[in-house]
């Protein structure tokens, strides 16, 4: 697919006792699972991290934030800035069960929107969403003005919101968007891993 896959690996993993990207499910690290999925689908896969040395062995090019220490808004900004393509699917490094058929469907919906973002029970999922480079001015302005609450950027973007009914065609929503960001979530991930091709 002529699009970029961007993995955000900038979180501090404060709820885990170690880097959540390297949490293991079914004998593989979460980030390895994601890199494999992305490289099969996307023409380009990149990783955004302010600790690039941790990820260089994985294969994809690693870029740092242009506006460091400003949270996920700066990660999305850096991903779009460095992406070769005008459209990118941007996802956190702790979402092992994302269905790439859903991701492909999301790209078909982008059309003239700035972004396509899933919503689960009124909660947007901005770290499993599609963004076009048209978002860059809004992201840059937010970072320049220290407006870094991620959900707020959607007040300024022309975004298509995908609802639960649309998402459920691709699997159990709570599993597809499961963030392995604490030990409880890691245990759940290990229990359900057998039902997924990882």
What can you tell me about this protein's structure?
- It is a single chain.
- Strands 1, 4, 5, 6, 7, 8, 9 and 10 form an 8-stranded mixed sheet that branches. The chain has a two-stranded antiparallel sheet with strand order 2-3.
- Helix 2 (72-82) packs across helix 4 (136-144).
- Helix content is 31%, strand content 20%.
- The longest helix has 12 residues, at 30-41.
- The model has no long low-confidence stretch (mean pLDDT 94).
- It has helices at residues 30-41, 72-82, 100-110, 136-144, 164-167, 173-176, 183-192; strands at residues 4-8, 24-25, 28-29, 44-48, 61-63, 87-92, 115-120, 123-124, 128-132, 159-162.
- The protein is of the alpha/beta class and 198 residues long.
- Strand 2 and strand 3 (28-29) form a beta hairpin.
- The protein is globular and about 40 Å long.
- The protein has one domain (4-195): Alpha-Beta Complex (Spore Coat Polysaccharide Biosynthesis Protein SpsA, Chain A), CATH 3.90.550.10.
- It contains 7 helices and 10 strands.
What coarse outline follows from CA principal-axis ratios? globular
Distance from first to last alpha carbon: 20 Å
> Do you know the CATH topology?
Spore Coat Polysaccharide Biosynthesis Protein SpsA, Chain A
Sheet with the most strands? 8 strands, mixed
Provide the low-confidence segments as ranges.
none
**CATH architecture field:** Alpha-Beta Complex
Helix content: 25-40%
State the secondary-structure class.
alpha/beta
CATH class group: Alpha Beta
> What is the number of independent domains?
1
Number of helices: 7
List the helices and strands in order: EEEHEEHEHEEEHEHHH
Number of strands: 10
């Amino acid at each position: 697919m002529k699009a970029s896959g961007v993995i955000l690996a900038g979180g501090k993993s404060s709820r885990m006792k170690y880097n959540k990207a390297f949490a293991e499910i079914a004998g593989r690290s979460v980030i390895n699972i994601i890199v494999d999925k992305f490289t099969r689908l996307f023409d380009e896969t990149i990783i955004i991290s302010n600790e690039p040395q941790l990820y260089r062995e994985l294969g994809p090019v690693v870029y740092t934030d242009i506006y460091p220490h400003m949270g996920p808004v700066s990660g999305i900004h850096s991903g779009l800035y460095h992406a070769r393509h005008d459209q990118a699917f941007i996802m956190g490094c702790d979402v092992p069960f994302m269905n790439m058929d859903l991701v492909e469907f999301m790209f078909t919906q982008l059309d003239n929107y700035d972004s396509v973002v899933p919503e689960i029970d009124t909660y947007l999922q901005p770290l499993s969403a599609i963004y076009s480079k048209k978002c860059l001015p809004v992201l840059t302005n937010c970072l320049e003005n220290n407006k870094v609450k991620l959900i707020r950027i959607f007040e300024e973007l022309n975004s298509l919101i995908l609802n639960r009914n649309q998402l459920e065609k691709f699997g159990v929503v709570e599993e597809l968007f499961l963030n392995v960001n604490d030990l409880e979530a890691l245990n759940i991930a290990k229990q359900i891993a057998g039902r997924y091709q990882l």
